[in-house]
Design brief:
3-stranded parallel beta sheet; two-stranded antiparallel ribbon; flat
Length: 281
């Protein structure tokens, strides 16, 4: 079990006499909050393929994940805050993986372990394999290798700890679960003859119409990110009942940024108002 090292927490701006440094630390709320979170992450207990064997070795006595407070691998997504995607992601397994991710509480993190989880690896473009889990769920840290060694996984976990250390309670973009609530659930992919991402349904429909007309339909076409963002922003603004600025027509990226910033700001204000109302009760 790791020892409490107060000097890890101490903010050097405030001097503490040398003889008291073992007992006293002066620090910020953000720092102690992040230190607590990153020193007690609970990974979700599941493995997908050969990489999982290395993950299991990392948790065993020689490499000892408990030094990071991560030895408690949970069998339930509702008690986990770290998903280690360790192995080849087949289209069949993708559906439960996304469902498990949605069931994890905020704040939650994802680590893609190995070439397969990061981009398909040796099976990239295979008929049954997804070319990277990041096409479906957001990934915080990628660990390269086939398979990555336990040391590489530990390095990835340390990188994740550094990322958490950098998050500020005062910046709601860093800790959105406090400001605007949990992120939207990722739509569950549909497994048919192939995997279908519900977010691309409109594109698939358009391609099917073109194919039916005997026209080229661009099998590799992906929705441009900018257009998706504009549509997302407009849809959210419509839900809120306010007039959406005319951003689609111009397509200018600064208009999109401004609209998204406005939307984010309004969500923050609403979240703050909700919190104040709850505190008054
Ligand atoms: S990256 Fe290599 S070791 Fe890991 S699951 Fe894929 S094939 Fe197996």
């Amino acid at each position: 079990m790791s020892q409490l090292n107060l000097q890890q927490l101490h903010d050097t701006e405030f001097p503490v006499p040398a003889d008291m440094q073992g007992n006293v630390a002066i620090t910020s709320l953000s720092r102690i909050y992040n230190w607590s979170r990153r020193s007690s992450m609970w990974p979700l207990l599941f493995g997908l393929a050969c990489c999982a064997i290395e993950m299991i070795a990392t948790a065993a006595s020689r490499y000892d994940l408990s030094r990071f407070g991560m030895e408690v691998m949970r069998a339930s997504p509702r008690q986990s805050d770290l998903m280690i995607v360790s192995g080849t992601v087949t289209k069949k397994m993708l559906v439960p993986i996304v469902r498990l991710y949605n069931q994890m509480p905020e704040p939650k993190y994802v680590l893609a372990m190995g070439a397969c989880a990061s981009g398909g690896g040796p099976f990239k473009e295979g008929y049954n394999v997804v070319s990277g889990i990041d096409q479906y769920i957001p990934v915080d840290v990628y660990v390269p290798g086939c398979p990555p060694t336990p040391q590489a996984l530990l390095n990835g976990l340390i990188a994740l700890q550094k990322k958490i250390d950098g998050q500020l309670l005062t910046n709601l973009d860093d800790v959105p679960w406090y400001g605007v609530g949990p992120s939207d659930a990722v739509p569950i992919p549909v497994l048919g003859p192939d995997i279908i991402d519900p977010r691309q349904m409109e594109l698939i429909r358009r391609q099917a119409e073109l194919a039916a007309q005997g026209q080229p339909f661009g099998m590799r076409e992906l929705p441009p990110a900018a257009i998706t963002d504009v549509e997302k922003a407009k849809a959210k603004m419509k839900v809120k009942g306010s007039a959406a600025p005319a951003i689609a027509a111009s397509g200018a990226s600064e208009d999109v940024d401004a609209a998204l910033a406005e939307m984010r700001n309004r969500k923050r204000q609403e979240a703050l108002a909700r919190k104040r109302a709850m505190m008054k009760q």
